[in-house]
Amino acid sequence: SYVLTQPPSVSVAPGKTARISCGGTNIGTKTVHWYQQKPGRAPALVIHFDSDRPSAIPERFSGSNSGNTATLTISRVEAGDEADYYCQVWDRSSDHQWVFGGGTKLTVL
Amino acid sequence: EVQLVESGGGLVKPGGSLRLSCAASGFSFSSHNMNWVRQAPGKGLEWVSSISTSSRYINYAGSVKGRFTISRDNAKNSLFLQMNSLRADDTAVYYCAREGTSGSYADYWGQGTLVTVSS
């Protein structure tokens, strides 16, 4: 079963850049999607197909994927970006068709 | 505006059953694959099940296979999850999620419905 590994937490000062990693064997050969989940709310898509942003998502959010690591980058971090972030891939061979990473809590200092 | 509204959650005893519903609006429901994703209290996201537009293709996570049944009614813009033989580790918020047109991800989520399995 395919496994995605995320750091449990990332902290960043306002205005700085946050990078959240998502590790998986040859993840660069898969397409990665990212979700933001604020406390008590449903997840929301912020990046799909590695680096595409839904129209409502600010340009400050970007994604990349290569080798064994995908990365969600949030530039000029704001207090409102504080949330849990999950990466996800589709893996037909896995027990779970949609495989999620364990999630990363982004704290804005 | 795309809306997904889940209902049917609640408290159930181990071994019991529950049927979740998801009412969809604001888009062509019959044109999208649909999924259920759950989140145990304080934990991460776990994909549960998916169903294709015509119900031809259905998949389940191993943890629920044989106990849960996903279905849909395109005429009523509704998605369902029949949950039988419930266990304590099925306790979670259950989200209905629309699959993006290009597949493999969720572009819209409902607000979730809480299922608690406890004696």
Overview of this protein structure:
The complex is a heterodimer of chains A (109) and B (119). Chain A has 109 residues and is an all-beta fold. Chain A is 0% helix and 44% strand. In chain A, the strands form 2 sheets. In chain A, strands 1, 3, 4, 7, 8 and 9 form a 6-stranded mixed sheet that branches. Chain A has a 3-stranded antiparallel sheet with strand order 2-6-5, with no helix packed on it. In chain A, strand 3 and strand 4 (44-47) form a beta hairpin. Chain A starts with 8 loop residues before the first strand and ends with a strand. The mean pLDDT of chain A is 96. By secondary structure, chain B is mostly beta strands. Chain B contains no helices and 11 strands. Chain B has strands spanning 3-7, 10-12, 18-25, 34-39, 45-51, 58-60, 68-73, 78-83, 92-99, 106-109, 113-117. In chain B, strands 2, 4, 5, 6, 9, 10 and 11 form a 7-stranded mixed sheet that branches. Chain B has a 4-stranded antiparallel sheet with strand order 1-3-8-7, with no helix packed on it. In chain B, a hairpin with a 6-residue loop joins strand 9 and strand 10 (106-109). The relative contact order of chain B is 0.31. Classes of the chains: A mainly beta (109), B mainly beta (119).
Largest sheet of chain B: 7 strands, mixed
Greatest chain-chain contact: A-B, 25 and 24 residues
The number of helices of chain A is 0
The stretches of 5 or more residues of chain A where confidence is low (pLDDT under 50) are none
Structural class of chain B: mainly beta
Strand content of the residues of chain B, in percent? over 45%
Contiguous low-pLDDT stretches of chain B (5 residues minimum) are none
Mean pLDDT of chain A: 96
- C-alpha Rg of chain B (nearest Å): 13 Å
Shape label of chain B = globular
Write down the secondary-structure element order of chain B. Answer: EEEEEEEEEEE
Distance between the termini of chain B: 40 Å
